[in-house]
């Protein structure tokens, strides 16, 4: 029987190491759970795997080396090849990605294995172009490739976050749950974008109307008023109108230079942002930016807590669950915090203590993790914390959307009001000069 070496956290927070006899890895995890231990790492002992291998090698010593199987050969060929399927990568719309994720998660949740589920999707007429995606993924999976790697090969529409979460689902045996969560996340994101577009329609009309009024003021009304004031004896333009007229003349004379400078600034910023050396700075800025920062942080907490809850709930060791959650995190600043947590948990420190040491996680999250460690129900505590941060994320987004309309109204009212005030002031000054 195989022997597994483990490092685990006891209910008192101490670190225990040792070996356990089990038929396979899931059985070893169940044994540790019955002992009240939270595994940090679990590896099969080298001695237990070397014995049978040596025995088999000895008995087959005179035999000729076997040829690799067609499945292994196909797998090696895929690894050596490029990152494309024979038909090339297939691009999908977000709605198609959501449909694919929902269909696959439903079939996996109903008890189908991955390859039969993909084969069933190939025969569904209502899925349209998704049948080609399902066919390409099924061929790669059948040839021995991991599902998450097959997703990357078949379509770039499955982004790094999606593929990392799929890898976490494969490792934990909870692929259907992970995909269901991902479908919910994608639908929430699509719904948010739809609400944002609807909320911006009216402000967009206001902005266009304000720009139109400003153009009329600057190009027609103010020049006519300027001509009237200059033809009046003793007439003098107010200083703000003089500055506005000079700015207008400058824009008319060098508009193409200004346009080139704006485009160059945009391209420079994009190149700077996409530079790997500057990604950490940009990701930190997003976390600290007003209004945007809380949204980015809350979104990370929801994703991190849900992923950890699914992985821990399916018996994955804590250290491996943290590594997979880190791989599913795109923000480099947050990844650095998770790297610190992983290092400290690997050294035997409790999960909650490691979170405290980083100084980057909120007290509520740490308290929920601590409760889960004390009760032995870490996955349930993480899931409750994820639900709370999901509500906080919804509140933050609603707050931002509620502030868009008044902000635009104030800006446009200030712009139009300032121009109207300047014109009225100039008219009154002209009338005053005529009376004298």
| Strand residue percentage | under 5%
- Strands across the major sheet, in which order? 2-1-3
Order of helices and strands: EEHEHHHHHHHHHHHHHHHH
Question: Mean pLDDT across all residues, rounded?
Answer: 77
Individual helix count = 17
Instruction: List how many beta strands DSSP finds.
Output: 3
Radius of gyration: 31 Å
Describe the structure.
It is built from 17 helices and 3 strands. The protein has helices at 25-34, 46-59, 70-80, 94-109, 114-122, 130-142, 147-154, 160-172, 175-231, 239-274, 279-288, 292-313, 318-327, 332-346, 351-358, 363-375, 378-435, and strands at 3-9, 15-21, 38-44. α9 (175-231) packs antiparallel against α10 (239-274), α13 packs antiparallel against α14 and α15 (351-358) runs antiparallel to α16. The protein is mainly alpha-helical. The chain has a 3-stranded antiparallel beta sheet with strand order 2-1-3. Residues 52-87 have low confidence and may be disordered. Belongs to the GSP F family. It is found in: Cell membrane. It comes from Luteolibacter rhizosphaerae. Residues 100-223, 304-425 form the Type II secretion system protein GspF domain. Residues 22-36, 73-86 have a biased composition (Basic and acidic residues).
Throw out a few tags for this protein.
436 residues, mainly alpha, 17 helices, 5% strand
């Amino acid at each position: 029987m195989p022997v597994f070496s483990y490092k685990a956290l006891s209910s008192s927070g101490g670190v225990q190491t040792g070996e356990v006899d089990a038929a396979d890895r899931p059985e070893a995890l169940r044994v540790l759970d019955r002992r009240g231990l939270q595994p940090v790492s679990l590896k099969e002992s080298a001695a237990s795997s070397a014995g049978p291998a040596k025995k088999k090698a000895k008995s087959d010593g005179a035999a000729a080396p076997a040829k690799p199987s067609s499945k292994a050969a196909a797998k090696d060929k895929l690894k050596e090849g490029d990152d494309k399927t024979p038909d090339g990568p297939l691009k999908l719309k977000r709605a198609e990605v959501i449909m694919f994720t929902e269909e696959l998660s439903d079939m996996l949740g109903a008890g189908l294995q991955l390859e039969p589920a993909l084969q069933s999707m190939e025969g569904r007429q209502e899925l349209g172009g998704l049948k080609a995606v399902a066919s390409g993924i099924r061929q790669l999976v059948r040839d021995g490739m991991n599902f998450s790697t097959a997703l990357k090969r078949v379509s770039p529409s499955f982004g790094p976050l999606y593929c990392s979460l799929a890898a976490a689902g494969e490792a934990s045996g909870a692929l259907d749950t992970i995909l269901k969560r991902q479908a919910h996340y994608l639908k929430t994101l699509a719904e948010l974008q739809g609400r944002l577009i609807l909320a911006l329609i009216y402000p967009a009309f206001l902005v266009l109307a304000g720009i139109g009024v400003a153009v009329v003021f600057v190009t027609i009304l103010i020049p006519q008023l300027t001509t009237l004031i200059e033809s009046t004896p003793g007439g003098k333009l107010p200083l703000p109108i003089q500055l506005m007229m000079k700015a207008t003349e400058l824009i008319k004379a060098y508009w193409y230079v200004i346009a080139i400078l704006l485009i160059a600034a945009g391209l420079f910023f994009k190149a700077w942002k996409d530079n790997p050396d500057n990604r950490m700075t940009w990701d930190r800025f997003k976390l600290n930016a007003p209004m945007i920062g809380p949204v980015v942080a809350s979104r990370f907490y929801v994703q991190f807590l849900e992923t950890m809850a699914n992985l821990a709930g399916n018996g994955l060791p804590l250290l491996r669950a943290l590594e997979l959650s880190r791989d599913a995190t795109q923000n480099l600043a947050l990844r650095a915090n998770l790297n610190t947590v992983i290092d400290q948990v690997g050294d035997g420190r409790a999960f909650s203590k490691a979170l405290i040491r980083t100084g980057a996680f909120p007290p509520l999250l740490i308290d929920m993790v601590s409760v889960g460690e004390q009760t032995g129900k870490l996955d349930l505590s993480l899931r409750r914390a994820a639900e709370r941060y999901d509500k906080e994320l919804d509140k933050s987004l609603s707050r931002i959307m509620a502030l868009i309309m008044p902000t635009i109204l104030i800006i446009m009212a200030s712009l139009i009001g300032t121009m109207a005030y300047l014109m009225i002031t100039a008219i009154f000054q002209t009338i005053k000069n005529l009376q004298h």
